[in-house]
Amino acid sequence: MKVRYGDCDMQGVVYNPNYFVYLDDAMDTWIQSELGPDYLGRFDYVVKKASLEWEAPARWRDVVEMRPEVTRWGRTSFDVSVALSVDGRRIGVAEFVFISVEPGSHEPKPVPIPEEVRNALSA
């Protein structure tokens, strides 16, 4: 994700909430690349918990690389860690807990994670 001028605050660094916008886009891109662009018809998820620990800032025109990895599988939930870096320099790590929900419902009622999803995101 290339940092846009409007993503930065008065200190010239990415405004904190914008990292979560970047991370949301990175998750969708990752899952699309593994399950296909129509994955929402077969699998949907909601965020239960999100945290981000910063180590260094990203600035205007930096390219923030995000590498998601599933760190835990449950029956209806899964944890993902996302390493963030700029030019090979780690700038932070995000941790998420996601809940699998009925595709298209967006309801907080958990459903089992399909085996197809586990296999694809574990590769």
Key traits:
single chain; elongated; alpha+beta; 4 strands; 123 residues; 2 helices; 36% strand
Describe the structure in brief.
The chain is of the alpha+beta class and 123 residues long. It has two helices and four strands; from the N terminus they run αββββα.
Folded structure, characterized:
It is a single chain. The chain is α+β, with helices and mostly antiparallel strands. Helices cover 23% and strands 36% of the residues. It has two helices and four strands; from the N terminus they run H-E-E-E-E-H. Strands 1-4-3-2 form a four-stranded antiparallel β-sheet. The protein is elongated, with a radius of gyration of 15 Å.
In spatial order, strands of the major sheet run 1-4-3-2
How many H/I helices?
Answer: 2
Structural class: alpha+beta
> Tell me, what's the shape?
elongated
The count of β-strands is: 4
> What fraction of residues sit in β-strands?
35-45%
Task: State the end-to-end distance.
Answer: 23 Å
Please, what is the oligomeric state?
Answer: single chain
Biggest sheet layout: 4 strands, antiparallel
Topology as a string of helices (H) and strands (E)? HEEEEH
**Helix proportion range:** 10-25%
Radius of gyration based on Cα positions: 15 Å
Mean pLDDT: 96
Q: Segments where pLDDT lies below 50 for 5+ residues? A: none
